[in-house]
Amino acid sequence: MLRRSARLGLSCGLVLGSLMLGACSAPFASAGSADSTTPPRTGSCRDLRAADLDSTSNSTTVVACSRRHTAQTFLVGALPRSTGQAYDDARQATYAEAACTKAFGAYLGADEDQVLRAWLSWSWFGPSERGWQRGARWFRCDVVGGPRGTRTLASLPTPAEGMFATSPPDAWLTCSQGAEVVGGTKVPCSVPHTWRAATTVEIGKPAASYPGDRVVAARSRDRCHDSIGTYLHHPASFGFAVTAFGAEDWATGTRRSICWARTSL
To answer: 191 Cβ partners below 8 Å, 6+ apart?
Structure first.
């Protein structure tokens, strides 16, 4: 079963750089659970490590959601025959990722803008190769406490479902430490930071073809300039940066770029 990187908001994409204007991102609990033909349950919690997110299957023991947990299953699905019968068919990853992407924002109560700026991500897991040979065709999508690429996952609130339905706390929004967003360290906005992923801007309509890197970069710069200016209440000078996404992300439905505001922290 092939593993592909999930679309995880601020963890992927091309940061175009800082532009300074004026002065100036029943659950199975057995050790062999990935071998089971019985699907996991939606809502199950686990204490995953960041390294677990790179695996195609996962048998981490389910824990009570009242205890520390870094992951919660928000969708369980079945892979259709159209995704192939071979364990390593890439169509399985494509199908699972599309399903997880669609369900992720709805589970959190987040719109597309919030999903791109969240200090959260998701990962999907399928059965082990042994489970696949036994006929298992399930997959699960887990929300995890941190962006893709983070070294340590944060403990999730209980429950994670609907946590963005009201104003999300800074602990679950993404900021960056450093002189520039490029090369900076991504952190939750609840800790000291020099940049905040403050807004997102639409770069193209859902049915539009990818316009090319140069067009995306130009649109992102212009629209983020206006968006961050409004966010900061139109000061005489301000700093901003852009994270734009390329053709691969466009193909999965991403039509927005992330706008970063220079902060005083």
So the answer is: 175, 177
Which pair of tokens denotes residue 218?
């130009």
Give the integer Cα–Cα distance in Å for 265 and 259: 17
Residue linked to tokens 């940049």: 195
Residue 216 DSSP one-character state: H
* Residue 65 · residue 159 · CB < 8 Å: yes
Mean pLDDT split into 10-residue runs, the chain, 265 residues: 50 42 34 83 96 94 96 97 95 95 95 95 96 96 92 92 90 95 93 97 96 97 98 96 95 94 85
CA distance 24 to 19: 8
Cα end-to-end span (Å), the chain: 44
Residue 265's pLDDT is 62
Candidates 25, 6, 11; CA nearest to 200 is 25
> Which has the closest alpha carbon to 99: 61, 62, 73, 130?
73
Alpha helices per DSSP H over the chain = 90-108, 112-117, 129-133, 213-231, 247-251
In angstroms, rounded to a whole number, what is the distance separating the alpha carbons of residues 39 and 81? 17
Handedness of CA 71, 143, 75, 65 (dihedral sign): positive
Could you tell me if 223 and 199 are in contact, meaning their C-beta atoms sit under 8 angstroms apart? no
The model carries a pTM of 0.84
Name the phi and psi angles at 41, rounded to 5.
-105, 140
The residue behind tokens 């339905």 is: 165
Longest dimension (CA), the chain: 65
